[in-house]
Write a structure and sequence with these properties.
Layout (H helix, E strand, L loop, with lengths): L2 H24 L4 H36 L1
Helix pairs in contact: 1-2
């Protein structure tokens, strides 16, 4: 699989998990609290996924250059 597809799938899975867990934990609260928490956690998770893949690519590139 292409790296872009893997990143996209991981992002969607993360957002789905955040939505499900957020709904389970915050179902008594306001819908706006659920929206805000989901938005923040999904955004942070997506940033982390992108940072992780960029770091792995930089590490691979550096490893190839040292050979």
């Amino acid at each position: 699989m292409e790296e872009k597809k893997i990143k996209r799938i991981l992002e969607y899975v993360w957002i789905a998990v955040v939505l499900l867990v957020g709904y389970y934990l915050l179902k008594d609260k306001s819908i706006w609290v659920l929206f805000l928490m989901t938005f923040l956690l999904a955004g942070l998770g997506t940033l982390f996924i992108n940072f992780f893949f960029d770091s792995v690519n930089a590490w691979r590139k550096k490893k190839k250059e040292t050979k």
